[in-house]
Specification:
By secondary structure, the chain is an alpha/beta fold. It is 31% helix and 23% strand. β14 and β15 form a beta hairpin. α4 crosses α5. It is globular and about 75 Å long.
């Protein structure tokens, strides 16, 4: 019989920014109590439709039913950063500056100062006012019929979280795996049960990052369309540089004459004098494609990697980065296979449905296609117990050190 269990555990604080975490880490475990699972399989959602709870539960049950594995789905830090996953709109000081400057340039006089916008209702009222002013202005010939305003809003994630981007999220995946190795309601082979990470886009990126942080723990990564370097659009503070180019999304769905750009709340900033400066070192640790780091990782037990990627994915996950990453994997003797999808005849309508980012891929088909192969490799070449469960990555002026202690992965950041 299929069993679904929900857990809440303590995970990690934000060591980089010295922020105490307020929220618990929640994850779900699905397994068949009539089987002995051969692996813990993490299906890690990205930032799109695959973060939907109903979809994730159905997928987990299908895989746990059809294959001899336990399926884990982690609500990692800041996963609720889209309206469809519970986030809410608000305006911070930069958003208000953009609103004020943009409406002044368009000659639209607001009914009250932007400083008085304190809640969602007031924000909505102002946006309706601007939209109506644009409609009337077009009727009077003040604006072209195709004219619209670009404005920016921020997203407050659920649980009062914020966008740390990558590090805390990968730690959440690792801490979940460590917890289950010791506390799962089934035999985990004395804690030696293999751990396989699977994900699309941001979920695939986090799977690679978890393997970078704890290579002795992660046995395999199955990926669809992850980016090899951190994505500026998703870090949250791109609006400080160019709110249209570096916003996470833009939409006309709320107001016909306003393009609303949005970004997730973050404490990171481009201000080099701030303690929250997103410095080159902060970027470096978040990159999977970092040759010196891959060389360091190569001295540890090597996870297996397999990835699918569209050759035409230029906007979100540049294929040249992925190709270079997997070339470096091979240089350091990782078992890593990249399938670069280039041709229309590779679109079969069932597994791969487009050449856009993510390829509208069936994750269920991906898992059924690749998971058994990876499990066979792991069985033939099981990892030996690795005593030194610590890895350090020099990053410009900082040294990032990740250490496994009992059932947690701990981070220390020191001046290099």
């Amino acid at each position: 019989m299929l069993i679904n269990k929900i857990y809440e555990i303590d995970s990690c604080d934000d060591v980089e920014l010295n922020i105490k975490r307020e929220s618990k880490l929640e994850f779900k475990l699905c397994f068949d109590d009539e089987k002995k699972p051969e692996a813990l399989v993490f299906i890690t959602p990205g930032l799109g439709g695959d973060a939907d709870d109903n979809y994730r539960e159905h997928l987990a049950e299908t895989i746990a039913r059809d294959l001899n594995v336990a399926v884990v789905s982690v609500n990692y830090h800041c996963i609720g950063n889209r309206p469809n996953t519970g986030s809410t709109f608000y305006m911070d000081e930069i958003d208000k500056l953009i609103l004020d400057a943009t409406t002044q340039a368009a000659g639209i006089k607001l009914p009250y100062s932007v400083d008085k916008i304190q809640n969602y209702d007031q924000m909505s009222e102002i946006f309706h006012f601007i939209n109506q002013a644009l409609i009337e202005g077009k009727k009077e010939g003040k604006f072209r019929l195709d004219y619209y305003l670009n404005l920016h809003v921020s997203l407050q994630p659920t649980k009062n979280e914020y966008q740390n981007f990558g590090i805390m999220q990968a730690q959440d995946l690792i801490n979940t795996a460590l917890f289950l190795k010791n506390n799962a309601p089934f035999d985990t082979m004395g804690g030696g049960i293999p751990v396989i990470m699977i994900g699309s886009s941001h979920g695939g990126y986090l799977s690679h990052l978890a393997a970078k942080i704890a290579p002795w723990l992660i046995d395999g990564v199955i990926d669809n369309s992850s980016y090899a370097k951190f994505l500026w659009k998703l870090v949250g503070f791109g609006k400080e540089i160019d709110f249209m180019q570096y916003s996470e999304f833009s939409t006309f769905s709320l107001f016909r004459h306003i393009c609303i750009c949005g970004s997730t709340k973050t404490f990171w900033t481009s201000n080099s004098s701030s303690p929250y400066f997103f410095s080159p070192a902060r970027r470096m640790i978040r990159n999977i494609l970092e040759s010196s780091h891959l060389e360091i990782q190569s001295f540890y037990p090597k996870p297996y990697y397999v990835s699918y990627h569209s050759f035409y994915d230029k906007r979100i996950a540049p294929p040249e980065d992925k190709i270079e990453l997997y070339d470096i994997f091979k240089k350091y003797h990782f078992d890593a296979k990249l399938y670069m999808i280039k041709d229309q005849d590779q679109i079969d309508g069932k597994f791969i449905k487009s050449l856009d980012h993510g390829m509208d891929m069936s994750i269920k088909t991906l898992i059924k296609k690749e998971l058994s192969i990876m499990l066979e490799k792991i069985k033939k070449h099981p990892k030996k117990e690795y005593k030194d469960k610590s890895i350090s990555y020099p990053c410009e002026d900082l040294l990032y050190k990740f250490t496994q202690k009992e059932d947690k992965i701990l981070l220390e950041v020191e001046r290099n």
